[in-house]
Amino acid sequence: MSETNTTRPVQFNSAKMSYEEFRELLIADYKLAVQSRFVSLLGRKEVLTGKAKFGIFGDGKELAQIALAKVFKPGDWRSGYYRDQTLAFALNISTVYHFFSQLYANPTIEADTSSAGRQMVAHFAMPLVDEEGEWIDQTQQYNTVSDISTTGGQMARILGLGLASKLYKDNPNLSHKKKFSKDGEEVVFCTIGNAATSEGVFWETVNAAGVKQIPVVISIWDDGYGISVPNEVQTTKGDISSVLRGFQRDEAGAGYEIFRVKGWDYAGLCEVYEKAAEFARTQHQPCIVHVTDITQPQGHSTSGSHERYKDQDRLNWETEFDCNQRMRDWLLESGLASDEELKEIESEMKDFVRQEQKRAWSDYRKTLQVDLDEGIALLEKLNHHAVELPLKTLLSLSDLSLKEVYVNIRRVIRDLRGIELEGKAELLAWYQEKQKVNHSRFNDKLFTDTKYSPLKVEKIDAAIDDNSPIVDGREVLNACFRANFERDARLIAFGEDVGKIGDVNQGFAGLQDEFGAQRIFDTGIRESAIIGKGLGLAIRGFRPIAEIQYLDYLIYAMPVLSDDLASLSYRTKGRQRAPLIVRTRGHRLEGIWHSGSPMSVLLGGLRGMHICVPRNMTQAAGMYNTLLNADEPALVVECLNGYRLKEKMPHNVGEFTVPIGKAELLREGSDITVVSYGSTLRIVQEAALELEKLGISIEIVDAQCLSPFDQDHLCKASLEKTNRLLIVDEDFPGGASSYILHEILEVQGGYYLLDSQPRTLTAKAHRPPYGSDGDYFTKPAVDDVVEATYKIMTDSRPNEYPPLFS
Fold first, then answer.
1. Where are the transmembrane segments (predicted)?
2. How far apart are CA 657 and CA 460, in angstroms?
3. For residues 454 and 632, is the Cβ–Cβ distance under 8 A?
4. Could you give the CA distance from residue 27 to residue 67 in angstroms, rounded to a whole number?
């Protein structure tokens, strides 16, 4: 481990740079450090005066980030966190104006270029796709994946970001690489706070990056605390680089090159980052830079004061070893600048920051003022006493917000219900139009919604006839994957046991031998890392299929899935995307830990991903074909008990598509509509035969996709015929079945078609015990479906269908 602890004279090659050029470089760096510090100081004041909701800043980390920026090249990647404002300023990923616009939550992408007001301050992003959904040339810009607040959440995706460079380097003939790589020379720069190294995702990622030898430089900003909790409580030995020594590369094998440097040591920082970046870039091996002795002059955030948990000695030390102050002292002591010159710089930067803050605040106010002025003008045209108080309120607003504008407008609309009044129609029309504007400001782009949306992929029927061979379902999947891998060199698949044995259910059997271990490969047991790898690869132009072995294990990857992947389009207002397909299997396997049906967890946590629940492997193959021709992330849950069931092999197994968000009518009936999906659907189909013996005809609808659900309103059309509804699934009570009920009754308007109470049939509230008997008594069985259906008929026609149990 390389350790750099003290400031030493900076050596420079006079043949490359004159003394004056060198001095100007140092002055420019100091100017940037001062600018960033004033941003932090003023930003905190703006929050404490009530002009912004919350602030979190990068003060104390300025020099380390300036040194890092020096080795950051176009095409490189940043995966960082909310302390990186100096780095963002240095690379022009953000500006002072954009920073304050984000602090105020300006809902325009022109002002807050990172998130259009959707993320709190210091969460940076660069556009990766244009408005048409086309990839921007990543080799020509400084790239950063949109930040997330999740502690340590920025770690997992570096695996895919860095692996992409290795793949581009090893496969120079990849036809799609032009916009994504310069011969694999890109380095990923990841930043993380010292306390966040206690998170499991940190260790998963560090281990996986070491195994794959990812070209990444991980910077650990160590200010000694995690909010109020000191390192001694966070980390063994109180020192993360000491703990990481076992990862140091040596004669025993490949690993990390680990550096340690103090955050106030400008020369040492520059030297370390030059070495680390060169090592990662040329040798494609990972590095860790532990930056110690960093201060945090204003504490963790605007939520509190660090004086509450730091004693006076620590506070005195932080004043003495403040990186900006140490650089200032060094410039003076070395004769590189005069005190007068530095004071002039400080005054200039303070004025500049204040000017940009005022400009950001003014533009934010102007954005809101438009709605306020228009609303006031419309209310002034209304001659009614109900308008007086809301109008006075809007005219006297001091703390302007869109919320206050629309609270008062909507109050007027309510109070004028049923009243004919001149100007009212104009107000209502304006309000309806503003609903669209505010949807764009605050609610759009949960999905990318480009021409590449999976909802727009052309439907191609499966070519199945009497000559179609009858095979195991797994063989249909295998043939589908083979056809797609032959057609598209961007495809990559990985996960536990996916490579050598072709996954535990043989979907990829033999494909590693055909397409190589770079395209289809095994991973360790680390679900967060698997999803992060897929996310990063997808952002960099590949089409990854990341496998999580069983549906229950998705829980271990939920922070990456939910906080990062699912929210990526929304939090960047559609300017970043990661078309990752997550493949897993579940349903009907016995046992508490393999029951495989936590659909409500996924529906709640994965808004921003399509959730596909095919009933068999042919349907699954069609969904994969659709998703691989689209640009949005999705989860496909295959039926665990369906791999050896017999299906006909489509002649166009790699081309046919199953529409996303479309339900399918499987059986016509007249008495009750039964909606289900996945493995439970086969239970319903068996029950239909028993119900026929009882004189009950059920219509069966396969949901096929839960998000989005039944966009053609097939369920409503079925209810128009049957007027009765039963939803069957094996999620917990009140889970996915309740979601489906909401979609049919409320969204589709099915409530008005009902002649009897709708019902849901689900698994029990507990997880299933092990064994077939446990499955029978826990999850819906044929008998349960028969009896639940019969009960609906009993309630509506008791004379014809007398109660079973009385």
1. none
2. 5
3. yes
4. 14
